[in-house]
Amino acid sequence: MNSQFPINQNFTKESLKKQFRLSEFLAEKIISSVAFLSITIIVLIFVFVFKESLPIFNFGKSDAAKTEITTDSKPESYGSTPTEELKPETYGAEPAAKGELKPETYGSEPVTQEDLKPETYGDVKAEPTVESTSNETPEAVSENKEGADKTWSTFFTTEWVPVSEHPRFGLIALLVGTLKVTIIAMLIAGPLAILAALYTSCFASKRTKEIIKPIIEMLAAFPSVVIGFFALMVLATFFQDIFGYDSRLNAFIGGVAMALAAIPIIYTISEDALSAVPKTYTEASLALGASKWQTAFFVTLPAATPGIFAALLLGIGRVFGETMIALMATGNAALLSANPFESVRTFAATIGAEMAETVFGETHYSVLFFIGSLLFIFSFALNAVAEFYVKGKLIKKFQGK
Amino acid sequence: MKNIKIEVKDLSLYYGEKKALKEISLEIPRNKVTALIGPSGCGKSTFLRCINRMNDLIPDVKITGQMLVEGIDIYDKNVDVVNIRKKIGMVFQKSNPFPKSIYENIAYGPKINGIKDKNELDEIVETSLRQAAIWDEVKDRLGDSAMGLSGGQQQRLCIARTLAVSPDIILMDEPASALDPISTSKIEELVHELKEQYTIIIVTHNMQQAARTSDYTAFFYLGELIEIGKTNAIFTKPEQKQTEDYITGRFG
């Protein structure tokens, strides 16, 4: 019988010896290193962003304070109002402003030693400066603390006035603005996208599904600047005609526009999740005398909860970090109000709008990076809480322990 | 005629062009167990799914002929398919509990029928589980996911779920095919008890199972009904040669 198969290998220790498969080994290593590389990159991005914002923390106490001190000693450099106001705009045009700006524009080189350096190099060189200052005068120390506290404490105020005699970095208004836009966007996008997904996966005929799905997914291919432009030109006017509010660009318009951006993401993922629900569940439900709607809502939807949840999270992530639409459609005024028809300013839009205008190493610059870290931390925390807490609860509720 | 629950007249079913059931005519008696046997692909499951119109879900299915349940043609235009399925329950080959808690699995049917009262639901859940002989095993963990039960328990849970909507007829599509002998015998006992109250139609590949559990047996072959009669008669002296060959294991 065995003569049919030419068997060369005998069942010996030799033939069973462990082999080294080079290509497999390499492939495995490459794949795993790529995976770890991507994780590392994400971590590094965060580390970089966070590092840039460090000067406003403990290490940066001296820097912030330094600024304050210099403000007292040299009015030109920071304090005087006209210089201050002009600073960001005129920074490029040196010949235009001579008298007042001179110390500043040229100051960057000679002054750096005392003024900018500690900020630029943040944590590293800041330490000795602190020591020297504290050694010199005890007053300086107290002032230092006061200065650092000032930057810090302004975080919890409502005013975002980064460029002024007394810069105030009130993050509350920005936070509320971001949350407002996110909530509005998710209130619109969530139900729309999930219901659309439910329709295509449970009710639509195969042909309808083949038409609808690619069209909604195509929405994801729209560049956000186009959606922003559409919101700016069309949606804003349209909704103002309906609701008759004062500020044309506001949180609501921003939310609607961002919903457009989030819908395809939520739709696609929840549709996949709904389609992946085994047919046997549907059959069992129908065999019990449930109608199509009852089956869809009480069986298919709960069974797809984890997937839909992930879809919503991704949608929130998209809206949270969306910059261009926020810049174009929300009005960019850091107002604190509960009214959805007031202009708002989001975290992402603040970074997008102001980063190009800040001075490298300045407090404002650091604060913007701090906002960047905040965005990162928020999304991370949201995902973590959702993943470990809410999801488990939801699953328990819908699917038993 | 009084004891006839289902009367099928010249029922044919087409999957597109293919004729899967060929002019089936038979009568199914009330409060008895009727077994449908036959080789794979002979149309017995298809026929079973015709009885509660589950074939409606499959596109391109065409059905001709009449399916009279209590004298009413369930394929009549004015008949609501949802109401039919409430009266004609079905247990599937593969146990398919919902990914919900055990309690919710049973309460689902009554709930969609509009029963909201908690006490009433509790009662239905308990009686259904008792009827399906699984109450003692699960009574302490009604809140747990049904997916954590064993295969045999899941299948009995599915039977309990079907009972909870108080149907007249229970269709079983190879309910024990994926189960071990102990679970199978439990299901068979269950079938035996349930026939007091329900008309049961059971599809099975297992000849002994058909012989053990059923009162009547119908033999299908290639989409045709070859023979139907009392189980004893079919298994001891079948009238058709094909039936005899199949039962004795000469083909199929």
UniProtKB/TrEMBL annotation, chain A:
It comes from the Bacteria. Residues 68-120 are annotated as: Disordered. Residues 175-386 form the ABC transmembrane type-1 domain. SUPFAM superfamilies: MetI-like. It is found in: Cell membrane. Keywords: Cell membrane, Membrane, Phosphate transport, Transmembrane, Transmembrane helix, Transport. Gene3D superfamilies: MetI-like. One of its GO terms (biological process) is phosphate ion transport. The chain crosses the membrane at residues 30-50, 169-198, 219-239, 251-269, 296-320, 367-390. It is a multi-pass membrane protein. One of its GO terms (molecular function) is phosphate transmembrane transporter activity. GO terms for cellular component: plasma membrane. Belongs to the binding-protein-dependent transport system permease family. CysTW subfamily. Part of the binding-protein-dependent transport system for phosphate; probably responsible for the translocation of the substrate across the membrane. This is Phosphate transport system permease protein. It comes from Flavobacterium soyangense. The lineage of its organism: Bacteria, Pseudomonadati, Bacteroidota, Flavobacteriia, Flavobacteriales.
UniProtKB/TrEMBL annotation, chain B:
Its main location: membrane. Part of the ABC transporter complex PstSACB involved in phosphate import. Responsible for energy coupling to the transport system. Residues 6-247 form the ABC transporter domain. It comes from the Bacteria. It comes from Flavobacterium soyangense. Keywords: ATP-binding, Cell membrane, Membrane, Nucleotide-binding, Phosphate transport, Translocase, Transport. One of its GO terms (cellular component) is plasma membrane. The lineage of its organism: Bacteria, Pseudomonadati, Bacteroidota, Flavobacteriia, Flavobacteriales. This is Phosphate ABC transporter ATP-binding protein. It is found in: Cell inner membrane. GO terms for biological process: phosphate ion transmembrane transport. GO terms for molecular function: ATP binding; ATP hydrolysis activity; phosphate transmembrane transporter activity. It is a peripheral membrane protein.
